[in-house]
Amino acid sequence: MQILGFIVFLNVSHLGVMQIFRLTTCHAYFCKAIPLLILYGAGVAWVLFALGMHPFFLWQLILASIWLFVIGRKQTKMAEAMLSMAGEDADSVRLIAVSTVKTIRYYTYSSFVYVAVFSGTYIWLYNT
């Protein structure tokens, strides 16, 4: 029963973080959305701790990291496809290239922030 609860928790927490990532990968909202991402990561760690799912901490950390990595790889492939379809216009290719590099960079930063805050908060809660 606890495994089923963890699977539900993993999916719900991932859906929530992906909604926040929609804000953090927007170039204009990155700095404004990072505090929300930090609060969300700490909240997910607190809920996991409060539910007593201690054996699933590493599973949450590993599966969420793998999930974020897979989505990041898909974004990279989509960016390459967009560049190949941009055509011969140098200005549009340059604009798309700059935009996709920033988006991928913000996604990577957001992923590291989420995983670090989640794991740091959970470890802090577990040791206090």
Can you characterise this structure?
- The chain is mostly helical and 128 residues long.
- It contains four helices and no strands.
- The protein has helices at 2-24, 30-50, 57-85, 90-127.
- The longest helix is centred in the last third of the chain and has 38 residues, at 90-127.
- It is elongated, with a radius of gyration of 17 Å.
Write a concise keyword list for the protein shown above.
128 residues, mainly alpha, 4 helices
- Main sheet attributes: strand count, strand direction, barrel closure: none
Amino-to-carboxy terminus distance: 27 Å
Low-confidence stretches: none
Q: Which structural class do the helices and strands define?
A: mainly alpha
- Strand and helix order: HHHH
Coarse shape:
elongated
What amount of the residues lies in strands?
under 5%
Overall mean pLDDT = 90
Q: Which radius of gyration do the C-alpha atoms yield?
A: 17 Å
- Total number of beta strands: 0
How many helices in DSSP terms?
A: 4
Helix content: over 70%
List the helices and strands and how they pair.
Blueprint: H1 2-24, H2 30-50, H3 57-85, H4 90-127
Helix pairs in contact: 1-2, 2-4, 3-4
In short:
By secondary structure, the protein is mostly helical. The protein contains four helices and no strands.
